Amino acid sequence: MRRTAWLLLAWWGWMASTFHVNAAEARLLRFPAIHGDQVAFGYAGDLYTVPASGGLARRLTSDPDSYEMFPRFSPDGRHLAFTAQYDGNTEVYVMPSQGGEPRRLTYTATLDRDDVSDRMGPNNIVMTWRDNETVVYRSRRNQWNPFKGELTLARLSGGVPEILPLPRGGWCSFSPDGKQLAYNRIFREFRTWKRYRGGQADEIWLYDFATKETTRLTENPAQEIFPMWKGDRIYFVSERDENRQANLFVLDIKTKETRQITRFTEFAVKFPSLGDSAIVFENGGYVHRLDLATEQVARLSIEIREDFAIGRGGLKDVSKDVTSGAVSPDGSRAVMGARGDVFTVPAKKGPTRNITGTPGIHERDSVWSPDGRWIAYVSDASGEDEIWMRPQDGIGEAVQLTTRSDTYKYDPAWSPDSRKLAWGDKKNRLQFVDIETKAVTPVAQSDAFEIRDFDWAPDSRWIAYAKPEVRRFSSIHLFGIESGNTVKATDGWFDVGGPSFSSDGKYLFFISERSFNPTYGSTEFNHIYSDMERIYLVALAKATPSPFAPKSDEVKIKDEKEAKPEKLPDIKADDRPVGTLSSLLNDPQFRKVVAELAKTGSTSTS
């Protein structure tokens, strides 16, 4: 019995320690590099090092205003070059690999390409080292095309940067003797393209510094990036396998044979780096290590124990972080989204209310119902993107309207009767949900792109939407809520967007590019079409007159009955006035006859 108790205690102790280790394991680790027994990587904008077997990481940088990235060990392991923003610009720095003061190596004029989130990659990214005294980085300071960059040398001793004799370049690796360079010409790793097979897919090229000849090493429609030269082999990342997932491959320079090494199916191999005996890379937010001798891959279990001050809770001023806004139907309050919560604010008097207040849950795209009772929004409270609603005063439970989400939702819009909500999604669909039954009805799906422009009719019986078309311009359609029928409103010859019903529902307004007014250049006999957008409308029923129908002022012809003069009474001879002219003019009967003749226009003198 005592032995069983001890075994149970030991088991619980092992479980507790295992849970602690797993709970402390870090993720979202980026840009790893390796030398010997040390691995450097980026996490939350700082650089860390950890033993090559994993364990507790040690932070090397801590500037709260700088984002440090792309660490690369020098060949002798003494220095660590990286890209950072200590002085505002994105520049190349170097520091002792065991820690120390960073020293700036490059100086670049402030550009609009210094943003870390630039989808063409930030400026001055550290690529590799040529030798223990020279860092190779990719600079965009001289290229207007964001896809292009120049491979440039920065020496620890200082001096003017030297551009390698290549028109453009990206990820690269020198041969062991330093006489050749394997490199990518195009740089688009920061784009979100996957399984791309177009003309901008990277290939691996070889440049000989002595002969100045460039030859292509790989010829595959798939993306081939991150060449890493070790001995007679070049390791690289490719999407050429049957799953079209980015994995590590190796090319034998002598035999030209290419072989796949890793076989990840869920996440891609990203940002690998070559060390003296291993390659480290990202996969699913974790750092993995490939032993070059055995070609065995192991995930490093890395712990980060810091104060994580940037992630702690507390009071935050979110007034400068508003991402969406809408006004209540009566204009007394507005609803806004900021930092993942939904707020309502008064027009003049009253408190600001956080009607969600859900740390760890992201709410966005909030909209007020036309009857003023509800606020709808998109939330990931269930773990997926779903549409929810809650009472506008924040009192009461939230109601989940959609389930089984399979993609990203956006732009929810209430029907005017507050009974339905429509939205678009990343799968190019337009749908709406019935608030009472929670039934979801598909409206349309585009084969070309997302459906972002749509509007409800005032009677809530129709939805007008602009549908992107394949190999032609978008066209506007009308979907009947009750009938389920779709009617096409425009022909697709001209680009259209922004459909909007008139307040009486008789007309549909939209914007279209169909105004052709060519202008000619002063130096070249070429014409361009600018300012082509105008607002147009269509009448939604045959009986509805066009407000722009032709108008013309025409003469109105009187009816025959109206034109017939009134018959005057006959004047008898005995009634004829006699006497002088003055007595005649003063005679009442004579004056009456003259007045009647003047009225009818008669010329009779009888």
Describe the structure.
The chain is mainly beta and 606 residues long. The protein contains 4 helices and 47 strands. 7% of the residues lie in helices and 39% in strands. The strands form 13 sheets. The chain has a 4-stranded antiparallel β-sheet with strand order 1-2-3-5, with no helix packed on it.
Write a compact overview of the structure shown.
The chain has 606 residues and is mostly beta strands.
Q: What profile does the largest beta sheet have?
A: 4 strands, antiparallel
Going across the biggest sheet, name each strand in turn.
Answer: 1-2-3-5
Strand content: 35-45%
Q: How many separate helices? A: 4
End-to-end distance, in Å?
149 Å
- Rg, rounded, reads 39 Å
Question: What order do the helices and strands come in, and which of them pair?
Answer:
Layout: H1 2-24, E1 30-35, E2 38-43, E3 46-51, E4 55-56, E5 58-59, E6 69-73, E7 79-84, E8 91-96, E9 103-104, E10 125-131, E11 134-139, E12 150-155, E13 162-163, E14 172-174, E15 180-184, E16 204-208, E17 214-216, E18 224-230, E19 233-238, E20 247-252, E21 258-260, E22 270-274, E23 278-283, E24 286-291, E25 297-299, E26 302-303, E27 322-327, E28 333-338, E29 341-346, E30 353-354, E31 363-368, E32 374-379, E33 386-391, E34 399-400, E35 409-414, E36 420-425, E37 429-434, E38 440-445, E39 454-456, E40 462-469, E41 472-480, E42 486-488, E43 495-501, E44 507-513, E45 518-520, E46 527-529, E47 533-539, H2 560-563, H3 581-585, H4 588-600
Parallel strand pairs: 4-26
Antiparallel strand pairs: 1-2, 2-3, 3-5, 6-7, 7-8, 8-9, 10-11, 11-12, 12-13, 14-15, 15-16, 16-17, 18-19, 19-20, 20-21, 22-23, 23-24, 24-25, 27-28, 28-29, 29-30, 31-32, 32-33, 33-34, 35-36, 36-37, 37-38, 39-40, 40-41, 41-42, 43-44, 44-47, 45-46
